[in-house]
Design a protein that fits this description.
By secondary structure, the protein is mainly alpha-helical. It folds into two domains: about 45 residues; about 70 residues, no CATH class. The protein is about 70% helix and about 0% strand. Helix 3 packs across helix 5 and helix 4 runs antiparallel to helix 5.
Length: about 120
Amino acid sequence: MNTTLTPLMPKGWAMAATRRKNLQRVGWLFVVSVVSLLSSCATTDINAIAPPVADGSSQLARGRIIYVTKCAKCHAPEPVHNYTRAEWQQIMPEMVEETHLNPSDAAAVTAYVESLAAR
């Protein structure tokens, strides 16, 4: 659409056409951003980050649920196997304090991450 003024077009029409074009550009940028965000979320496999518990332990299963839900409130959960047991023992006290986990939940999460920690 040509927005240059001609003697027959009112001044306001050209400004409205320019605004409309700019809004269309912003709209397309928004659509592309949303699609990109959704596609990146769709490729995240939570089972790769926090593998399900194989042995059926209710404490470990509860620890996994807390890890996936509570930890993700502040940051993206890290793949559990990225850290050794010793590293988790240094990380967990600070995270427990920041999230105000009760002792039972803290023990469940700690048991879960340590059970899957890198060797």
